[in-house]
Amino acid sequence: MNLHAADQGPAPAPSPERVLDWQEGFAALGPAFYTELRPTPLPEPQWVATSAGVAELLGLDAQWMAGDEALQALTGNTLLAGSRPLASVYSGHQFGVWAGQLGDGRAILLGETTSGQEIQLKGAGRTPYSRMGDGRAVLRSSIREFLCSEAMHALGIPTTRALSVTSSPAPVRREEIETAAVVARVAPSFIRFGHFEHFAARDQIGPLRQLADYVIDRYYPECRTAQALSGNACANLLQAVSERTARLLAQWQAVGFCHGVMNTDNMSILGLTIDYGPFQFLDAFNPGHICNHSDSQGRYAFNRQPQVAYWNLYCLGQALLPLIGDEDLTIAALESYKQVFPQAYGTLMLRKLGLPADAQDTPPAEGRFASLVNPLLQLLADNAVDYTIFFSRLTDAVAAADSAAPDFGAVRDLVLDRPAFDAWAAGYALQLGTVDQQAAVALMQASNPRFVLRNHLGEIAIRAARTGDFSVVRQLLAVLQKPFDHHAEHAPWAGFPPDWASSIEISCSS
Ligand code: AMP
Ligand code: MG
């Protein structure tokens, strides 16, 4: 026996008082921007799923994440040392109408880590901004938000992330009685266009300026540099946000993502996808698709999204106008959206076809976009072709082609109007012949996911979760984290939606 070692005992397990180191972030703005309060506990929490990637991003120990301390803290039942929880106030335009004050009605910000990430618990109980709501989120919508956050990230689309989703048997009343869940969301900032609109609408120029300074200093420091568009930092901010939003919308449209509730309070100042509600990835390509069952007018239909984003930016511009102090400069800053969106969208759509973007100075109304992408979208719409499956099969056809022209048979099978497809494919094959085939395949394989979070996949995971079986959520997460891979064992999830998928109705109720 080694007495010396026995005397010392085993090295104590690291049990840091703080699992995260916090820094003063949003809270530094002061009480005009939020109310400090703690989450309201939920009974008998259980893990539904966690994202190892987000835990790593935060520097959270995997062992800690597996334990009860994490489960309680991420459900809002205990407070992590050093955190300073708060709910922020914002306003916004909902469905095109000024809605006045909104705010974090069920999300509580735990604070910002020294790695620059904010952690927010969604569904953590009532706040002064809950209005008529109960401050809770139900299991089904929490699973959808958790999975889609991580799916979008894996697709390379800017988004808030999700660290975990936990569930509780506590009843929550919606159309029927459901159960509660909490999503731990993570982002560098959860500031929305609506935060700016809030202070502008009240003529509170001091806080408005403070907010703009905070956002510029923390997230857009380049707006103050000499190389920026103008000497006006707030105009530069508006332009930078417009450009990020344009690129985000280009990515949504290219992947076939419909957000469903593009109110100005659901628009991130960082150009992130935020507030996953009745979103949907298109099955059959239908440009006018409305994914939100509550959106009777189709304001947020798939093909209206780019225009709505511009409208929302216009609201942000109006809110920033008192700081910019010049209407022409404000309009000029917004104009950038109209250049960046089509350029970015054109590039992404051509990549899906394995083709390099047209020359930077060629507007996408011309060249390959006009001759290939527009007719293709028309063909897909006319024939209600499954959007994701079309591009995956096209990728496989191009990848399988040797020196001969690709065999488009499996792609052609998707289209009822064969002569129209053949005409398009002939033009496409000609264009493909002008580029390096390996490079084309690489572009397509990195641009055309096989797996997206279709409504029915979420639904399958939710149905299992409601019986207490969270394994499907976790398997689906693993697949969606690598959406471009084959995952042969889950091939049906890359297939056509079942007939019942079209009867799924997703509303704002969450
Ligand atoms: P949303 O349409 O989900 O973005 O929500 C719009 C506003 O309603 C936001 O201010 C939310 O915080 C608030 N809200 C939505 N659901 C609830 C709820 N169950 N309890 C309290 N506030 C809610
Ligand atoms: Mg919202």
Describe the structure.
This protein has 510 residues and is of the alpha+beta class. The chain contains 17 helices and 13 strands. It has helices at 3-8, 52-58, 62-65, 68-75, 139-154, 193-201, 205-219, 233-255, 305-324, 327-352, 367-382, 387-400, 409-412, 418-432, 437-447, 455-466, 471-480; strands spanning 22-23, 34-36, 46-50, 86-88, 91-94, 97-101, 107-113, 118-122, 137-138, 161-173, 177-187, 257-258, 280-281. β7 (107-113) and β8 (118-122) form a beta hairpin. α5 runs parallel beside α17 (471-480), α6 (193-201) packs across α9 and α11 (367-382) runs antiparallel to α14 (418-432). The longest helix is centred in the middle third of the chain and has 26 residues, at 327-352. The protein is globular and about 65 Å long. The protein starts with a helix and ends in a 30-residue tail after the last helix.
Layout of helices and strands, plus pairs?
Layout: H1 3-8, E1 22-23, E2 34-36, E3 46-50, H2 52-58, H3 62-65, H4 68-75, E4 86-88, E5 91-94, E6 97-101, E7 107-113, E8 118-122, E9 137-138, H5 139-154, E10 161-173, E11 177-187, H6 193-201, H7 205-219, H8 233-255, E12 257-258, E13 280-281, H9 305-324, H10 327-352, H11 367-382, H12 387-400, H13 409-412, H14 418-432, H15 437-447, H16 455-466, H17 471-480
Helix pairs in contact: 5-16, 5-17, 6-7, 6-9, 8-9, 8-10, 9-10, 11-14, 12-15, 16-17
Bound molecules: adenosine monophosphate and magnesium ion.
